[in-house]
Amino acid sequence: MSRIEEVQNAALQTIAKAKDLAELQAARVQYLGKKGSIQALMAEMRNLPKEEKPAFGQMVNACKQAVSEAIESRQAELQKEALEKGMESEKIDITLPGTQTTLGTTHPLLMIQQELEDLFLGMGYKVAEGPEVEQDYYNFELANIPKDHPARDMQDTFYIDPNTLLRTHTTAMQMRELEKAHGELPIKLICPGKVYRRDDDDATHSHQFMQCEGLVVGEHVTLADLKGTLEFMANRMFGEGRKIRFRPSYFPFTEPSVEVDVSCPFCDGKGCSVCKGSGWIEILGAGMVHPHVLEMNGFDPEKCSGFAFGVGLERVAMLKYGIDDIRNFYTNDQRFLKNFDRFD
Ligand code: PHE
Asked: Mind listing the pLDDT tens digit for each residue in 196-213?
């Protein structure tokens, strides 16, 4: 009977010391299992005289009962502990400040590009694309600027090899589109994109900037069509009431060529610091597609004519939003960029 007590005490101690459910399960096997200590005590009953058996049996049963109950209650305790620990480690402090995710805004140059695309798509133009790494052939040759032509000096070029360069103007895309049309009329498209020139960067120059080319070729397309189109564009981009002025100019791929001024949107043409008192601001170059360019691209200049223009997107954005340094567009300064969220 003292053995029973010993086993019971040992069992209760082991159970009390069990640190987790695994240890408790080991104790259960050790004492209550088929090969456990309490079962072994039961087996000993066989060796006892008959009259001692009932009392012994009762004691073993009481021992078994006590151990079972101890295991049950320790198990409840351990389960509660585990739950509490889990809740503690998974606790979320809803009073802590969250991580802020800031939303970007459309870049001002992309805004201008999208505005131009909307405007010209609305007039039935298509939007064309072309490569930034371009062949000399499309950038110069097809644009009526052969190798020894002095006009090549007008556009300081980044050459990759003698026949490959970073396009210096979107006119390269114009040439690709003319060639692709195989003489079929009409052509009505714009091609916006990045262009590159070996300029020293300062407040008004950048070695990389954006242009948007416009091209229309058909029967009886005239300089008046060009003027009307540009006037419409100026009114949409800079507000109603803008006027357009042509000044003679020179581009090898257009004849005649013009420099285009828009009446100053800041002083309505009266003269201010932005237009330097003249009332006019130069915004783009344009002209009638040179007959030789039409011919080289498989069009008959006797049967069709066309106009083209190339506008600098930085210039438009600077005028429209009052930006005085072109470098602002490329330095990704949030203090600059976030000003444009209100136009988004
Ligand atoms: N390609 C000219 C430039 O970059 C602009 C232009 C385009 C002029 C189309 C006339 C016609 O300066």
From this structure: 999 999 999 999 999 999
Gap from CA of 214 to ligand 1 centroid (Å): 9
Most ligand 1 atoms within 8 A of CB, residue of 154, 251, 283, 293 to mutate:
251
> Ligand 1 centroid vs 309 CA: distance in angstroms?
6
In the 8-state DSSP scheme, what is residue 278? S
* Residue 308, token pair as written in the block: 């083209």
- Contact assessment for residue 284 and residue 305, using Cβ atoms and an 8 Å cutoff: no
Ligand 1 pocket, residues with Cβ under 6 angstroms? 169, 171, 213, 251, 254, 285-287, 308-310
Tens digits of residue pLDDT in 123-140: 999 999 999 999 999 999
Residue 103: the pLDDT is: 81
Tell me what pLDDT residue 39 has: 86
State how far the Cα of 153 lies from the Cα of 162, in Å rounded to an integer: 15
Three-state DSSP at 16 gives: helix
User: What is the number of the ligand 1 atom nearest to the C-alpha of 168?
Assistant: 4
The SS3 of residue 253 is coil
- Start-to-end CA distance of the chain, whole Å, equals 90
User: Structure pTM?
Assistant: 0.72
Q: What is the mean pLDDT of residues 232-250?
A: 95
Nearest CA to ligand 1 atom 4: 169
E strand residue ranges, 130-181: 133-135, 159-161, 164-166
What's the 162 CA to ligand 1 centre distance in angstroms? Answer: 22
Q: Which residue minimizes the CA distance to atom 7 of ligand 1?
A: 310
* Per-residue pLDDT, 45: 82
